[in-house]
Amino acid sequence: MLLVKNNIRFIQIAFTLQLLILAVICVRAQNSFEISIDEPAVYESGENIHEVSNNRYVVTILREFEGAQNYTKRYSLLYLLDEQGEVLAMDSLMQADTSFFNSMTIPYGENGLICKGIYGTFDGNLSFVKIGTHISYFDLSNNQFDLQWLRKYPFHENGGLGYWTTYPMIKPGTDTCFAGYSFSYYSQHIFGFCALTGDSLFFKNVPPQTGWALNGLVFSAIDTSMLIHFTKGTYTDYSNIVVRLDKQYEFTSDILYSTGTNLNPIKTKTCSHQNGNIYLGGEASWTNWQTGEKFKHFGVFSYSNNFEPLNGIYLTPPDVSSQPAWAETMSIGPNGDIFVASNYDFSGGPFSGNYTYLYLAKLDADLNLIWEKYIGGDRYYSTSTISATSDGGVIVSGYGYDKDFPDTRGFAWICKFDADGIVGTSEHILPVKAALVYPNPASGYVDILSNHQHGIVRIYDISGRLLYEELSKPGTHRIDLTRLKSGTYVVAISVNNIQIHKQLIIKQ
User: Fold this and answer.
1) Is 406 helix (H, G, I), strand (E, B) or coil?
2) Beta-carbon contacts of residue 483 (< 8 Å; ≥ 6 apart)
3) Among candidates 456, 497, 496, which has minimal Cα distance to 473?
4) SS3 label, residue 95
5) Residue 432 backbone phi and psi in degrees, to 5
6) Annotated domain spans of the chain
7) Alpha carbon distance 374, 345 (integer Å)
C-alpha cells in the first residue's frame, strides 16, 4: 500500500491561507486501483468522475472547512489521476474573491475538459453565498488544469437562470456541448438547455409542463436527435418521461412514459446505447397489497429508439427493510456493456448499523447479468458517480464514513475496476462482514465467502423447494452445481439464527 502526501494551496478570502495536507492512500493492480482521500476532521466526497485521453481520470472532490456544521461551508477541487491512480494535478478555481464549484464535468476533444456548476463568495463565517452559474474550459495536455476560458451567468433576482441541473453532453458527431437547466420565474418552472461551441453559447427554453422536473439530456446514438429526460410525480406516483426534439429543438409527438416499471422518478438515470436503445435504471419498487409490504430492487429497462419497450431486469433480491438502490447511477461502455452502481444499505441481522455495501453490476445490451458484486460492508459508503472506461472496465467515486470514528467526518473514495470487476489487489475493496455468493451468474460451481465459523448453507428453487443443504465452511465454501438446471435460485446462509438470503442465477 502506497501512502502519498500532497500539499494543496487553497483560496484566500479575507482569511489566512492554509496549507492543507491530504492523505491519499492508493492500492494498485493492473487496470485497476483504489484511492481513499481523507484528512482528519474534514469532510471529503468524490462527486463526479470521467476518463480523459491517455488513460487519465478527472474527479471532483468536494471538501468541507474544518468544524463546518452544514452544507454551506464547502468547496470543490479537481483531481487529475493517471492510470495507476497517482495524482498528477489539483485545481481549485478562484478569481479575486469569487470561488467556482466545478460540480459537473465532461471530456471535450483530445485534451479538454468542460466544467459547469455554481459560483459565489464566502462570507465572514465561511458560508458560501451563491451568485450564479458558470461554464469553463480547461486544457489538460500538460497534465495541468490550464484554464482557457470561463463564462459566468448570474442569477436573476426574480428567478433568472437557475442551477444547470444536468451533466453536460457532447452531441455525437459534433463539437457542440449541451447542458440542461431549470429555473422558476414568477411561480412558473422553466426548463431549457444551452448549446456550447467554443466559447459561444445560445439558450433554448422548453415550454413548461405541469409537474415535470428536468432530470437529464440524452442524445440518440443512431440519429443524434436530442432527448430530454423528465420526471413527474411523487414517491407514490412514478413516471419517467423522455421527450424527443426535432432538428430545430422543438418538441415532437414522440414521448416515452415509463409506466409499469415502478422506477422512482427522483432516482432514475437514462442512457443511450450504441445500438440505438434507450435505457432507464434506478430504484424500482412494488407493493404487496395483501400484506402492505413494499419491496425494492435495482431495476433496468430498455426501449427501442422508437420508445417501444424491449426488456427489463430487477437486480438485487426484493427487500422490505433495506435500501438497495440509493444514490444509484449507470453508464454504458464503448463495447456496449452496461454498468450500474449504488450503495446498498442493509437493515437488520449482520448488516445492522451504519454499514453499507457498494453494489456494482455489469450487464450486456440485452440486460443479461454478466456479474454483480457487493463490496465493502465495514463502513458506510455512498455512491456518487460511475463512468465506463475505454479498457472495458469502470471507475466509481463516492464518499464514506465510519460511525465508530465520527471525528473523521468522512472520506472520498475512488475505485477503478477492470472488465472482470477486480479492483486493487483483490476482488473486494474491504473486509466483508457477512457472506458473498460468486460468481453470479454461476456455471458448474458457486463459492460462498464468509467470515463466520459455523453455519448452514441451503439452496432453494423459486418455488421454495429445498435442493441442497450442508454445513458451511469458514472462508471459501465451494458448491457443485452440475446437477442443477439453468434458472434462478435462492441461497440461504443460516448463522446463529440469522438468515442471509442471496439470489443466484445458474447458467449451465
Assistant:
1) helix
2) none
3) 456
4) strand
5) -100, 130
6) 435-508
7) 11
Q: If you count them, how many residues does the chain have?
A: 508
Closest CA relative to residue 74, chosen from 106, 45, 113:
45
Cα 361 from Cα 453, distance rounded (Å): 28
- The CATH number of the structural domain formed by 435-508 is 2.60.40.3080
The grid coordinates of residue 427 equal 476482488
56-64 and 74-81 as β-strands: parallel, antiparallel, unpaired?
antiparallel
* Cβ-based neighbours of 299, under 8 Å, separated by 6 or more: 261, 262, 263, 281, 282, 283, 284, 312, 313, 314, 315, 325
Q: Which candidate, 195, 116, 185, 187, places its Cα nearest to that of 155?
A: 185
Pairing of strands 32-38, 44-52: unpaired
Q: How many CA atoms lie within 13 A of 389 on its CB side?
A: 27
Collect all residues with Cβ–Cβ distance below 8 Å to 153 and sequence separation of at least 6: 132, 133, 134, 161
Write down the mean pLDDT value for the chain: 77
Q: Cα(396)–Cα(386) distance, rounded to whole angstroms?
A: 4
Residue 181 CA to residue 175 CA, distance in Å, equals 20
pTM of the predicted model, to two decimals?
0.77
pLDDT tens digits, 113-132: 988 888 888 888 778 888 88
